[in-house]
């Protein structure tokens, strides 16, 4: 872990974290806008509750403050890889369903997909800096083809976007934790940081 | 025997004198004062359409022996109306608190029970010692999309009522206002005010959960506020203040990503720096052509223009000295 602790590595980590925080903030803002567009175009009720959707990584976490830096990065990366596949699937379904009739929704979905991909790459860079390297993407393929009716697919899409919005907030917090000066980025925060 | 009897406002109340027969001779008192026989039906005390003023100690005595046969405390009140309940997190991400109150008093003791459900899990809300109508919860999970459902039930001897609020984790985040707001004039800058403040002390981790701020200011003589939103830092310099006017300034805070703005901070007042007016005698003597003794001419002290307390660079200090020398030279010319 000596490379991860060198001054240049620390500086690079701080720089990547700062940029990642900005990326996450922009992503969240765009996802929130996309949610509004999605709800409107798909004819959904914005307050509709969606049951836990299989294959969608939940942002909810217990003992968040006790996670190590590496845990944070790995969980974030797994999530955004999953979202990348889910959003690609949503984009495909949206094109099949609406064709060119709703180009605006398609463009918004594509823009968020791009940001999710960029953020996943950003996380991989951070993991490389931890001398850990990102895990392979084996097994993180697209979720099973849904045997869902049109309405169920729309609700699932709503669930995906809501969870992504939560992740964008969590990711910014995770990166701020990572950016804090500490003896080693893989070590858990000290007692002073526990609630 | 003695006990408490709760009755609704407007109710008709009948009190029996313990085990005494209906036709027994008795005397009733209310808070030690005899009650007129017109309120009696045999040995029963009849109170029609009771109101709050009729709460008190009611006693029944046997007619001839004055033995106390029955005593009760009548407490007149109302069943509870729907309570007001609010939940808020001013210490995110540690937890949140819920507080409640009744919109109208019941005048009798009330008992509150609160339940907090998150998904399938019920969470204990620990009651605060003070204030009594508040309880707090530590977050077991963060970043959850599952809503919290909080139900408050209030019960008293005359009835019960309840209310439920549902919210998600981010929506209730509202910091306390910024603390220690200070506004100071900037020396030699008649249109500037330096404002600084601190994060609310209840916000546990401003480094990981940074706050952004909203500053508003106006001169006292105007009603319209100027607003500035600041994404980082705990200070700001106002550069467009009206010279010489007293300003009122307030700051609010919000988590950078989620929740709502705090209430406004305590207001502070400040007036931008103003130049001290020149002495009128000095100007009059400079324009006179008649001779005057040196003792009647005093160059203005440079400290009035150059405040010792001002943070000045070496250039500004040189200007002060130069001004003093020039004025002293004028004085010599006209002696």
From TrEMBL, chain A:
UniProt keyword Glycosyltransferase present: no
Listed InterPro entries: 4_helix_cytokine-like_core, Ciliary_neurotrophic_fac_CNTF
Signal peptide residues on this chain, from the entry's feature table: none
One Gene Ontology MF term: ciliary neurotrophic factor receptor binding
A cellular component annotation (GO) from this entry: extracellular space
Residue ranges of the region described as Disordered: 176-195
Biological processes per GO annotation: astrocyte activation; ciliary neurotrophic factor-mediated signaling pathway; negative regulation of neuron apoptotic process; positive regulation of axon regeneration
Subcellular location: Cytoplasm
Organism superkingdom: Eukaryota
Positions of transmembrane segments: none
Major location category of this protein: cytoplasm
Keywords, in A-Z order: Cytoplasm, Developmental protein, Differentiation, Growth factor, Neurogenesis
Keyword Electron transport among UniProt keywords: no
Protein family according to the UniProt entry: Belongs to the CNTF family.
Described purpose of this protein according to its UniProt entry: CNTF is a survival factor for various neuronal cell types. Seems to prevent the degeneration of motor axons after axotomy.
PANTHER family in the cross-refs: CILIARY NEUROTROPHIC FACTOR
Record protein name field: Ciliary neurotrophic factor
UniProtKB/TrEMBL annotation, chain B:
Pfam families, alphabetized: fn3
Chief location of this protein within or outside the cell: membrane
GO cellular component terms, semicolon-separated: ciliary neurotrophic factor receptor complex; CNTFR-CLCF1 complex; external side of plasma membrane
Record-linked InterPro entries: FN3_dom, FN3_sf, Hematopoietin_rcpt_L_F3_CS, Ig-like_dom, Ig-like_dom_sf, Ig-like_fold, Ig_sub2, Type-I_Cytokine_Rcpt
Membrane topology value: Lipid-anchor; GPI-anchor
Molecular function via GO: ciliary neurotrophic factor receptor activity; interleukin-11 binding; interleukin-11 receptor activity
Signal peptide start and end residues: none
SMART domains cross-referenced by the UniProt entry: FN3, IGc2
Coiled-coil ranges per UniProt: none
Superkingdom in the source lineage: Eukaryota
Fibronectin type-III domain residues: 177-277
Key words of the record: Cell membrane, Disulfide bond, Glycoprotein, GPI-anchor, Immunoglobulin domain, Lipoprotein, Membrane, Receptor, Repeat, Signal, Transmembrane, Transmembrane helix
Protein name per its UniProtKB record: Ciliary neurotrophic factor receptor subunit alpha
This protein's encoding gene: Cntfr
